[in-house]
Design a protein that fits this description.
alpha/beta; Rossmann fold; about 25% helix; about 30% strand; binds glutamine
């Protein structure tokens, strides 16, 4: 299992480390050629406007969009969730637009830019998942094909749609590998994705 980690900006090193600990080989992706042969891709947190602009200038937006539309499993965290969304509530920015979700950026307000909270995430079992939220988005609305996996204060903060998995928080900043393992398992079950 070879998983790419989009490494243009943001917390890509932490994802690489988490994937390695969870038993998957990981490759940093900065060029379209580095997408070749991947079983799955992670889009990390960071700043989605920056990641989007860099994806355009590195000719990655189109290629990632095509691969994911063809079935490549993709895990987007925080800014990665924003990148995967069909739409953001305010503003214009380059998006992959693959997941049927409408996303509010920096949704939890200025006064609580960052916080941590234990989340009920039944897909992973009874043990709550410790969510690290950093200027996090939430999913404002989701289409019928989207399965919401966790909510915080009534807002969807983790979801899945076919080959796409997203969280508004940063599992790579904790020692809990369950979400990375879940994604690796999901990717394995979808292999070969084309
Ligand atoms: N606020 C950032 C954005 O909208 C996301 C923050 C993060 O990835 N930690 O892109």
């Amino acid at each position: 299992m070879l998983i790419g980690v989009l490494a243009l900006q943001g917390a890509f090193r932490e994802h690489r480390r988490a994937l390695a600990k969870a038993g998957a080989a990981a490759r940093e992706v900065r060029l379209p050629a580095e997408l070749e042969g991947l079983d799955a891709l992670v889009i990390p947190g960071g700043e989605s406007t920056t990641i989007g602009k860099l994806m355009v200038s590195y000719h990655l937006l189109e290629s990632v969009r095509e691969l994911a539309a063809a079935g490549l499993p993709v895990f987007g965290t925080c800014a990665g969730l924003v990148m995967l969304a069909r739409e953001v509530v305010e503003g214009e920015q380059p998006l992959l637009g693959l997941m049927d979700i409408r996303v509010r950026r920096n949704a939890f307000g200025r006064q609580v830019r960052s916080f941590e909270a234990d989340l009920d995430l039944p897909l992973l079992g009874k043990e709550p998942f410790h969510g690290v939220f950093i200027r996090a988005p939430w999913i404002e609305s989701a289409g019928p094909g989207v399965e919401v996996l966790a909510e915080y204060q009534g807002h969807a903060v983790a979801a899945r749609q076919d080959n796409l998995l997203v969280t508004a928080f940063h599992p790579e900043l904790t020692e809990d590998l369950r979400l990375h393992r879940q994604f690796i398992g999901m990717a394995a079950s979808l292999t070969p994705w084309r």
